[in-house]
Write a structure and sequence with these properties.
- The complex is a heterodimer.
- Chain A has five helices and 19 strands.
- Chain A is an alpha/beta fold.
- Chain A has one domain.
- In chain A, strands 1, 3, 4, 6, 8, 10, 12, 14, 16 and 18 form a ten-stranded mixed β-sheet that branches. A nine-stranded mixed β-sheet of chain A has the order 2-5-7-9-11-13-15-17-19, covered by helices on one side.
- Chain A starts with 20 loop residues before the first helix and ends with a helix.
- Chain B has one domain: Rossmann fold.
- Chain B contains ten helices and twelve strands.
- Chain B is an alpha/beta fold.
- Classes of the chains: A alpha/beta, B alpha/beta.
- Chains A and B meet through helix 3 and helix 4 of A and helix 3, strand 7, helix 4 and strand 8 of B.
């Protein structure tokens, strides 16, 4: 559907409750502004091809908007097992949009590091994990502190394929992510983790959908956020298990750590289960720093500030502990540690 | 007199403590000198763990009367971390788990804080390896998260490992023997004996079996928040044999 003809989604919709479309749109909502393309750069041994503007029709307003806006369009084919692929995504200009498709035909690791300081950035990533292959995917949002950011992702995981998906959200002023994965074949698996450090007045809305269409599929989602200052973090999840998708194993855990009185956090996992023989679990917790943990660390000589900072960094790092790829885990943890050390020095 | 003050590690005078308005300790008196091992025994809820926690400065406990002195200085104004840096150590009955924080990095930070200087790389690794070998701990412990998913025995070993590295002047051991099999108990006892030579040591326990391996100089029986009887190692044997009912009359 063409963006301009779409109805603005009401706040009663789960997806738009906390960050309504007008709040994340870059200008007045009836307009599609001129945009620059996000530049995706790879290490020398890998190649990415520029592709034509996608013509796929989208029902979702964010995806339709990104399609109408244009920007850069790239495709990366992972066709043979190789060294981890690092993609430097650089956003510049006033408004920047980028589209990237990953066609994963051989197992590998892909890491995207998004930087830049435009007023608005939009990214749409799509990916297909072919049967019996494995992708470990990391996304680091390290945009400038005044940037609004819209991110959409759509993944299809085929039979016996596996997607490990890690997000580190530490940049941008107002962020809205809508990450969707379809487990499209028996034996397909996703392990997903999101870590967000919400500081200052940051608003970070992370929505994750996982759709189990077949039986014997597995999903494991962990979302951890630390919220300080006036920040607001929102974690919403939608887990669906289709009729007949028996022997599915799915879990979602959302945890928020509140570090100031004015910080806010929402954690709303949702389940729609239409199959009979499944294991589906979800949990959500929002709490301040555990006083027993503080006491334990202080009883070992760490000052209150050192103790709190160690607990917060451990809490955020722990979101990645459900990943099995050591390289991806290490990379994400290192990026987070560096970020937290820089935060401490500010 | 001056020399005596140096030897005195802990003095508890008429200590009354409440938690959320409920009195737990009702006038505890205790003096621990350097090189002495004291054991406190008592029923569940007698106030043994409260004594250890309040000495370490847990904020949940309110001192309503009495005083605690460490090396002759009042403790009231010292924060928990300042007590640790001054050489006090509490081995917790239920140590907190800190997910995401690796044991190795935590130990380094703790040692740096207590010694007031960052530990030197190679020398510290050597010291750590020796302590871990002594406690029969595998090196893989260092990359695990602090107490996260640890068995009861693993938690207690990590507590004793920290004690060996921090070399406290006052060691408070709250039911360190619980959850340990006999081999682990022997290893842990060896660690306690090593530290106890130069420190004051307060062992809270329900069982004689630890006291077979760590010989106490004094055994205290606590009932309803008061030390009701003090004796030598024979008191522990009597308590194990007869229980606490015979002390109730005295209480």
């Amino acid at each position: 559907m063409i963006y301009q003809k779409m109805t603005i989604p009401p706040r009663s919709e789960h997806l738009w409750r906390y960050t309504p479309w007008p709040r994340i749109h870059p200008s007045s909502i009836d307009k599609v502004p001129d945009v620059d393309g996000v530049i995706f750069s790879l290490s020398e041994q890998h190649e990415m091809e520029s592709v034509a503007h996608s013509t796929v029709a989208h029902d979702d307003i964010a995806r339709a908007f990104l399609q109408s806006a244009g920007g850069s369009h790239n495709r990366l084919v992972v066709s043979e097992e190789s060294e981890p692929i690092h993609i430097d995504a650089r956003a510049s200009g006033h408004i920047a949009v980028g589209h990237l498709h990953l066609d994963v035909k051989a197992s590998g690791v892909v890491l995207i590091h998004l930087t830049g300081e435009p007023e608005w950035v939009g990214i749409h990533i799509t990916g297909k994990i072919h049967p019996n292959t494995q992708l470990s995917f990391g996304f680091v949002n390290e945009l400038g502190s005044n940037t609004k950011f819209l991110r959409c992702e759509d993944w299809i995981v085929e039979r016996d394929a596996e997607l490990e998906h890690a997000t580190l959200s530490i940049g941008g002023f107002r962020c809205k992510s809508d990450l969707r994965t379809t487990l499209n074949g028996t034996g397909s698996t996703i392990r997903q983790s999101v870590t967000a450090n919400a500081v200052g007045s940051r608003h970070d809305d992370e929505h994750v959908e996982i759709h189990h269409l077949h039986g014997h599929t597995n999903s494991d989602l962990v979302m951890n956020s630390a919220c300080s200052g006036n920040s607001h973090f929102i974690a919403t999840g939608l887990l669906t298990i289709a009729e007949g998708a028996n022997k599915t194993d799915a879990s979602q855990v959302f945890r928020n750590l509140l570090l100031s009185e004015r910080a806010r956090a929402e954690a709303i996992p949702e389940l729609e289960v239409l199959a009979d023989d499944v294991s589906a679990a979800h949990g959500a917790a929002t709490a301040p720093v555990d006083q027993n943990q503080m006491h334990y660390l202080m009883s070992r000589g760490l000052s209150p500030d050192e103790s709190k900072s160690l607990i917060v960094s451990g809490f955020l790092l722990n979101a990645f502990s459900n990943l099995s790829n050591k390289y991806l885990t290490q990379e994400m943890q290192t990026r987070l540690t560096v970020h937290l050390e820089c935060e401490l020095k500010r | 007199m001056g020399e005596r003050m140096v030897d005195e590690i802990l003095r508890v005078e008429n200590l009354h403590v409440s938690v959320e308005g409920t009195p737990i300790l009702n006038g505890v008196n205790l003096i621990i000198n350097r090189g002495e091992i004291h054991a406190v025994m008592g029923r569940n809820g007698a106030g043994k763990s409260t004594l250890a926690n309040v000495v370490m400065g847990h904020p949940a406990y309110e001192i309503t009367e009495g005083s605690i002195f460490y090396k002759g200085q009042p403790l009231e104004d010292l924060e928990v971390f300042e007590r640790a840096r001054a050489g006090m150590f509490l081995s917790f009955q239920y140590p907190a788990s800190i997910p995401g924080v690796q044991v190795g990095s935590f130990l380094k930070k703790s040692v740096a804080s207590v010694r007031d200087e960052p530990p030197k790389g190679r020398a510290f690794r050597k010291e750590l390896t020796a302590a871990m070998e002594q406690l029969s701990m595998d090196k893989s412990f260092l990359s695990r998260y602090v107490n996260d998913g640890f068995s009861g025995g693993e938690k207690k070993r990590l507590e004793i490992l920290q004690m060996l590295l921090l070399q406290p002047h006052l060691a408070l051991l709250d039911e360190t023997d619980s959850g340990l099999d006999i081999d682990a108990l022997r290893i842990v006892a060896q660690g306690i004996n090593e530290v106890a030579v130069n420190s004051g040591c307060l062992i809270i326990t329900h069982y004689q079996r630890l006291l077979d391996l760590v010989k106490p100089d004094f055994v205290h029986a606590m009932i309803d928040g008061v030390i009701i009887k003090t004796g030598g190692p024979e008191l522990a044997l009597r308590l194990e044999d007869k229980g606490y009912d015979w002390l109730d009359v005295a209480a």
